[in-house]
Fold this sequence. Notes:
- The structure is a homotetramer.
- The first copy, chain A, is an all-alpha fold.
- In chain A, 76% of the residues lie in helices and 0% in strands.
- In chain A, α1 (3-26) packs across α6, α4 runs parallel beside α7 and α6 packs across α7 (119-145).
- The radius of gyration of chain A is 20 Å and the shape is elongated.
- At the A-B interface, α1, α6, α7, α8 and α9 of A face α1, α6, α7, α8 and α9 of B.
- The structure holds a DNA duplex.
Amino acid sequence: MSPRINVSEARKNQILDAAAIVFARQGFYQARMDDIVAESGLSKGTLYWYFKSKDDIITALLQRVFDEDLIQLQSAQHTAGSAVERVIGLSRHIAADFTEIARLVPITFEFYAVASRQEHIRIFLKEYLQAYHAILQNIVQQGIDTQELRPVDAKDVATTIVAIYEGLLLLWVVDAEHIDWHTQPEISIRLLFDGLRRLL
Amino acid sequence: MSPRINVSEARKNQILDAAAIVFARQGFYQARMDDIVAESGLSKGTLYWYFKSKDDIITALLQRVFDEDLIQLQSAQHTAGSAVERVIGLSRHIAADFTEIARLVPITFEFYAVASRQEHIRIFLKEYLQAYHAILQNIVQQGIDTQELRPVDAKDVATTIVAIYEGLLLLWVVDAEHIDWHTQPEISIRLLFDGLRRLL
Amino acid sequence: MSPRINVSEARKNQILDAAAIVFARQGFYQARMDDIVAESGLSKGTLYWYFKSKDDIITALLQRVFDEDLIQLQSAQHTAGSAVERVIGLSRHIAADFTEIARLVPITFEFYAVASRQEHIRIFLKEYLQAYHAILQNIVQQGIDTQELRPVDAKDVATTIVAIYEGLLLLWVVDAEHIDWHTQPEISIRLLFDGLRRLL
Amino acid sequence: MSPRINVSEARKNQILDAAAIVFARQGFYQARMDDIVAESGLSKGTLYWYFKSKDDIITALLQRVFDEDLIQLQSAQHTAGSAVERVIGLSRHIAADFTEIARLVPITFEFYAVASRQEHIRIFLKEYLQAYHAILQNIVQQGIDTQELRPVDAKDVATTIVAIYEGLLLLWVVDAEHIDWHTQPEISIRLLFDGLRRLL
DNA sequence: CATGAATGAGCTTTCATTCAT
DNA sequence: TATGAATGAAAGCTCATTCAT
């Protein structure tokens, strides 16, 4: 790998870093290219040298955010322990770098909003969520196989767990004071595993 | 109440109806006032007669969407039955007018994205979610009181249920083919109430 | 015809008048929309209210310039007299409003330059030149029929006359001091009609 | 002459060749330096090493195009024969390398359009046309002196002949299907020499 | 109340030119 | 000489908002 490529990649990341900050602060459409220029410390021409449009920057950022997330998820799935501990382990892993989350979550919701209208963004998010879902389904199925869990439908359970995580993220965005991101995911997951019904 | 006011209200609703369609299709920032003008069949001057800015329309629409939702929720909370049936009843109620949901969900996510940046939108959504949360907490607490449910923390349960609903909505937006909105909420809620763990 | 339409047409002409001046002075591509804005006394938004792009203004101006010219030509073709007098009459007619010519000729050459690359401009000019050609061919053919002229190919003669006019225009643009636009067309046409060869 | 200069000249010509292609295709102002870079196979820095600006390239190309043409013209003027044959010989000579003409004509019209606005371009073209004019005037005057031609004004005749050539070129650019460049110049010139009028 | 032409600040994007390597 | 990443001053165009009628 020539050093040139690294310089090029570094520039692209420098731009995406700036874009992430600006998008989180102002949203995709409120963000002006000049804001990203100012935040990046580069010139406008340079931004357009590396990305052919604002939309290109958005898409590349989407790619990077979810790719990084997916890599983390996949490296976290091969933990040992009971199903409930492994699922909670995933959430702990995600919650670990909280500063990072706080930085990216507003962008994530921008993506969700855009996804409802733009096919290629929706497809990207779909694949991410399906990968997430597959990992969870796998863990749950193993729990069923080892008779830790009841013979429920692993797919439905995985869907529910994904929904809980994404839903909690949303609640946290809207009402950070009432949702403690360090404890709530684990609490919700344990409730799901233990059930609410009184055992007679 | 003079008839004048009714005409005024009718015009405002006509505009908000058009705005809802355009916002759902294009998003808040991609939507141009001219698009709303075209969709409403009114003139641009008339739009500005009833709303002083585009932001005003967004806020009024937010008000209307969540007010309607809240009224439905509150009328649905006084049902009879077990806690699980009442919670599921809520979701059934919400799912009832599915066409309406499909129309409004993209807008809802627009609001969530905006909420991460705009205080007054965030406060509005927070109040809506807190009202939603309170209703669920109430039902769960009654379930605990009647010994239908284990003595869990009703607040955490309500949070989890809200997260499940909002999370499923998000999954549906991104991947409508894999999430059946008519059955999935009930399935997830039953999983939560019954728990996943094998009873020893 | 409602007065509204006239106001609209007046605005369009106001813009095209300004564009003609700016294009003549700076050329199509050197001319900035802001220059036309300044020259027209209108605002930028108004220009874009009446024409959807700079290209649109160019095309509309082309339309107007050559349409006006064609109307003049066609009204001039029904004169009486010998073929040579009628052809010279055409040129006199064209030369009449010399200020107008001096204003439009630079634009005309812009059009010719663009025509070599843009199909729809070329087609437009082609039709104009063909109309011009048809009028001349008609006059020449009548001259042949009345035995004023030798039985030459009227089509080739018309082509030659059009070439002389267009060529002289070009020479005048490049070297106005040596080409007297008030006398040269008539001189050249008389040379063509009388021939150069000494009669033996 | 050191070999260095030849390499330099070769590079300059390589750039001008590329520029000619790009300018013919896109026009001066639509052509981007990057297009010339791509067409030349050189780098952008190299272009700016040999020419200090885009305008410099345009001027150098103008110089080269008309210098070549003038050299051809001047070498063609010393032919033998009658005046009409010598004038036609000039056009035959010009028409000989037709591919070259087809390539350069669109650029020529670019130059004419620019000439109407830029003094130094206009002066250049004026000198070219005057040289062209002088050669023709010379031939015609010799025709008069040898009593082949009537005692007309040789200057006016030369002007008319130049106009015919330039005018036909213009007609050909706009309507190549109706103007046969291999025959039309000769036809028009013969018409001019023989005259249209019926001899009584 | 209703209209739609008019406004202009602000946006994304382009591209001739420069310069460190 | 040669390269191509970097620059930034424009350019074309948009669109929320206003206001004369």
